[in-house]
Amino acid sequence: MVQAEFDQDYHAALELPSTATPNDIKKQFKKLALQYHPDRNPDKDTTAKF
User: Which of 33, 1, 42 is nearest to 14 (CA)?
Assistant: First the structure.
């Protein structure tokens, strides 16, 4: 396991403020997961982000 992958700011990765509620985090995660999912968007850049 690569430790560097887990040393990031998850709020920034989800484009949320650090004061976001758990419900806001859940909604944003689902939104971005659908946006970058390879089955919904065949672009190679989005596949790498997913």
Answer: 33
